[in-house]
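Q: What residues go here?
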């Protein structure tokens, strides 16, 4: 199969899953849809916890020492959050979601602007921040196969069905985010070849896991965080890891 089949499959499953969710969503009560969203929030926290535990992996601690991995993640989130806040990434993502809503749900469509944006932003974050997104896309670009992205595609298909039942057509629009982000990461993997060291990817995965915890809290209505403002942390984690290796 060609490089990029994992992302193509992922986009297709999200479109199909969200389309099915739109068809059956009106048959579900508000209580049921809320419960499904809560269940997805809990599962998101589980996946996030598994990713976050990567911070203690030997491949990272052997490279930078036992005390620096947590500082790398902390520094990535703080500095990345500052950068994202200055660039207003969360606001820009919401503006983009509003623009899509105006194009896809015209002429008095049932979906409200806020519901569309919430569906687009939340599902984009859930589908694009997890460790399988980064590692799966880069691994596919490195020529290691698309198994991780195929697994992610199945999970996202079921999640998009539940999300669409709750949030509407905005969830289907998140397929664009998947195509752009995962496609870009796959291209990055192709460009880098086998250059990216494993400790750097481990730090990136742990950082992404913590960001994903914020998504889970948002889904559970515990804490509404500007998650998108933290996305630059994913770029900073490998850079700070390299700095820590040099210092160490």
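A:
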């Amino acid at each position: 199969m060609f490089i990029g089949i994992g992302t193509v499959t992922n986009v297709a499953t999200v479109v199909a899953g969200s389309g099915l969710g739109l068809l059956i969503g009106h048959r579900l009560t508000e209580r049921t849809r809320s419960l499904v969203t809560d269940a997805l929030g809990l599962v998101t926290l589980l996946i996030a916890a598994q990713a976050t535990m990567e911070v203690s992996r030997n491949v990272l601690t052997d490279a930078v020492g036992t005390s620096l991995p947590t500082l790398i993640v902390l520094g990535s989130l703080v500095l990345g959050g500052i950068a994202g806040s200055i660039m207003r990434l969360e606001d820009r993502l919401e503006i983009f979601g509003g623009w899509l809503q105006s194009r896809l749900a015209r002429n008095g469509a049932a979906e409200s602007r806020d519901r569309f944006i919430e569906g687009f932003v939340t599902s984009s974050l859930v589908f694009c921040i997890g460790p399988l997104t980064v590692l799966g896309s880069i691994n596919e670009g490195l020529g290691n196969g698309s198994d991780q992205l195929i697994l992610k595609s199945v999970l996202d298909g079921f999640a998009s069905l539940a999300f669409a039942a709750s949030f509407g057509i905005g969830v289907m629009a998140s397929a664009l985010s998947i195509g752009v982000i995962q496609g870009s990461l796959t291209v990055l993997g192709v460009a880098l070849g086998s250059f990216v060291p494993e400790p750097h990817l481990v730090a990136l995965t742990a950082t992404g896991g913590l960001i994903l915890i914020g998504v889970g809290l948002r889904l559970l209505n515990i804490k509404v965080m500007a998650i998108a403002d933290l996305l630059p942390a994913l770029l900073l984690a490998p850079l700070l890891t390299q700095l820590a290796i040099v210092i160490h």
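A: Context that may help when evaluating the design: Residues 53 and 206 are 7 Å apart (CA to CA). The radius of gyration is 18 Å.
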